[in-house]
Structures are given as C-alpha cells and as structure tokens.
C-alpha cells in the first residue's frame, strides 16, 4: 500500500477502539484493516488519523509487535491440543494477521516442532483406533478434513497396524449382540453401518467370517 504523500509512506485512515478490548485500537491504512495495537503503542509510534505512516515504521510494527501477537495466538491455540498446519493457518487468518506475518509464525512453529502434520496424524489415528475404530478410508477422510495432505495420510495409515477385519468384527458383535440370524433388512442396515465406518466389502466379509467362526 502506497499513498500519494510519499513513495515510502502509507496513510492512516482510521484508528478505532476495539469493542471486545477497549485498550486496543484497530488501525486502518489506506482504507483497509492493517493491525491492532494497544493505545500506548499507538502513541509511541505517533500514529494519527489522516497522517502517513512511514514504511520503516509499518515494517517495525509488523515484524515485531504484530509478529509477537500472532506467535502468542498460535501458541495459545496449541495449548489445548495438537493442531494441523491448516488449522493454525485458519486461526491466524481468522485473527486477520497479514500473510507475511502468518508465514513468519509458521516458520517458527515448524522450526521448533510445534507444528508437525505427520506427528499429528499418527496421534489422531492411534486415538481413533483406541476409542472408535474405523476403516482406513474413513480415517483418511477425517485426516483430509483436518487439512492433512493425502500423501501424509496415506503414509501414516500404511505404517499403522489397523487390523480392520478384527475391528469390524467387534462392531458386528456389538451391533448384533452376537445374534447373526439377521433378515435381509437387518443385514443391509449392518453392512451400511460398517461401510459408513470406512470398511470395504472384502473387509466386512472377512469380519463376518471371523464372527461366524468364533475367532473374535
């Protein structure tokens, strides 16, 4: 953003108190939201509506104060549980941090191991299999929905001992309570349930055979 007042200056068009945090001010430059600062920093950097902000001042604010805000936002978001790269980028974008600030924060998170999609995927699959076993397809779709790349999802699933047939057999026992004398409608309902869990037809047939043979 360059204003007409100088090649290296931009125009502060509005300084508006935040509704959620009255101590902060939303700064608009050339008519667009740029960043938020506490009131003391607005005074320190001598920001005034209708006056230019030098490029050097703008860069100092973005590379230091705003970067620290963005980093704190990301670390706080990570404080509850592991997050994917996509989730972290979404959170920082939602908070209206500039793209270059987001990239700088992501570099920090990658460098120090705070963001690792493969580690996230391994942990996610392990927990899913412990609590609610699902087939490989369903697990892959869940990982993709969380922003995990197809390559990483496939790698993690290939490295995981899924035991899909045994897991599906346990679901069959749970849903039928061990009674396999099902009519056609009940069978279709059971098969549909297992398919929604991500089990393929060949896995379902294998699971049924395990149950019928009493091997589960």
UniProtKB/TrEMBL annotation:
Keyword Cytoplasm: yes
GO BP term, example: regulation of DNA repair
UniProt domain RecX second three-helical: residue ranges: 116-157
Subcellular localization(s) per the UniProt record: Cytoplasm
GO cellular component terms attached to this protein's record: cytoplasm
Chain ranges of the RecX first three-helical domain: 72-109
Domain RecX third three-helical: 166-208
Domain of life: Bacteria
UniProt keyword annotations, A-Z: Cytoplasm
Main location: cytoplasm
Family assignment from sequence similarity: Belongs to the RecX family.
Role, per record: Modulates RecA activity.
Entry protein name: Regulatory protein RecX
